[in-house]
Amino acid sequence: MKKYIFITKEGETLAPNTNIEICNMQVIGIVENAIDEDDALKTLLKDNPWIWDAGFNVAEFVIYEIK
Predict the structure, then answer these.
(1) First-residue to last-residue Cα distance in the chain
(2) Is the separation of the CB atoms in 2 and 63 below 8 Å?
(3) pTM of the entire structure?
(4) Closest residue by Cα to residue 27 from 9, 15, 43, 42
(5) What angle do CA 15, 21, 25 make, to 5 degrees?
(6) CA–CA distances in Å: residue 50 to residues 18, 25, 58, 63
(7) In angstroms, rounded to a whole number, what is the distance separating the alpha carbons of residues 33 and 42?
(8) For residue 26, how far is the Cα from the chain centroid?
(9) 40 neighbors 31 (Cβ within 8 angstroms)
(10) Between the CA atoms of 55, 60, 65 and 67, what dihedral angle is there, to the nearest 10 degrees?
(11) Are 29 and 44 contacting, i.e. CB atoms less than 8 angstroms apart?
(12) Nearest to 7 by CA among 47, 44, 43
């Protein structure tokens, strides 16, 4: 089984000093014990319905297998 991390460019992250604009990526989630990327994505979305509610575009997610 494999472990995946999901990252997105969407959304915003605020610095403690809100006068500074931050351009970075956000971790959406980590899924363990997945067969492949498709299985990991299905698990991520099933376990985290807030992803849809927040309006994230799942097609924009960057997925990496991690050890």
Answers:
(1) 11
(2) no
(3) 0.86
(4) 9
(5) 75
(6) 25, 18, 12, 18
(7) 12
(8) 7
(9) yes
(10) -50
(11) yes
(12) 44
One-letter amino acid of 49: P
Alpha helices per DSSP H over 1-67: 37-47, 50-53
- Domain definitions of the chain by residue range: 2-66
The helix (H) or strand (E) run that includes residue 32 is strand 26-34
Sequence letter at residue 46: K
Nearest to 37 by CA among 54, 62, 60: 62
pLDDT for 13? 80
Question: Is the CB of residue 50 less than 8 Å from the CB of residue 34?
Answer: no
C-alpha torsion sign, points 62, 5, 57, 34 = positive
Q: Model confidence over 1-57: pLDDT tens digits?
A: 999 999 999 988 878 888 888 888 999 999 999 999 999 999 999 999 999 999 999
